[in-house]
């Protein structure tokens, strides 16, 4: 009884190809550390985008509605840190920011340039440059500085502000 055998050259080529594919796939695997870094980087980009959307929505709102739109981006327990003052909760933040925005002479713009997030995607921060403009008796006051916003992911998957603060540029 004679059996037809596959030529050894074909088997050898198949095995070499399978080995090359296996090694290539093994080389593409990422370590848990690399995966965590990639996830944290992805969440940091999400935070930057959330911060940009926050800025767009505040800028697009009517002057009388900007305080409410501003506060809506904070978690219910969110805080705004000011020199010598900690404002806690959305209603208090609305009370703080509403009159300033409603004057029509006050405008606040910002753009994130840094962000970091946990690999779990539950917390993170953004930072960037801000500019505030407000009318005074002596003309329009302009202040520039750097801000820091700490974000927390809500149970619905959205990002909300846990704490926001800014530091004006020095006059030196």
How would you characterize this protein structure?
The chain has a single domain (33-168), classed as Roll (Nuclear Transport Factor 2, Chain: A), CATH 3.10.450. A hairpin with a 2-residue loop joins strand 1 (74-82) and strand 2 (85-88). The chain is elongated, with a radius of gyration of 27 Å. The chain has helices at 8-28, 32-60, 66-72, 90-102, and strands at 74-82, 85-88, 107-117, 123-136, 139-153, 159-168. Helix 2 packs antiparallel against helix 3 and helix 3 runs antiparallel to helix 4 (90-102). The protein has 172 residues and is an alpha+beta fold. 19% of the residues are buried.
Low-confidence segments, given as residue ranges, are none
CA distance, first residue to last residue:
98 Å
Please describe the biggest sheet, giving its number of strands, its sense, and whether it closes into a barrel: 6 strands, mixed
Count of spatially separate domains: 1
Q: Indicate the percent of residues in helices.
A: 40-55%
Q: What is the count of helical runs?
A: 4
């Amino acid at each position: 009884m004679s059996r037809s055998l596959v030529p050894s050259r074909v088997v050898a080529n198949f095995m070499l190809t399978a080995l090359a594919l296996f090694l290539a796939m093994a080389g593409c695997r990422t370590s848990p550390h690399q995966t965590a870094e990639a996830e944290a980087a992805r969440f940091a980009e999400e935070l930057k985008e959330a911060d940009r959307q926050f800025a767009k929505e505040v800028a697009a709102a009517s002057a009388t509605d900007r305080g409410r739109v501003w506060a809506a981006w904070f978690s219910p327990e969110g805080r705004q840190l000011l020199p010598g003052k900690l404002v806690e909760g959305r209603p208090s933040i609305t009370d703080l920011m509403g009159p300033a925005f409603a004057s029509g002479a006050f405008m606040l713009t910002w753009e994130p340039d840094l962000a970091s997030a946990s690999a779990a995607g539950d917390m993170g921060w953004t930072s960037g440059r801000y500019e505030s403009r407000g009318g005074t008796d002596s003309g329009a006051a302009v202040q520039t500085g750097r801000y820091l916003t700490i974000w927390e992911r809500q149970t619905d998957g959205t990002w909300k502000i846990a704490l926001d603060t800014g530091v004006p540029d020095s006059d030196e």
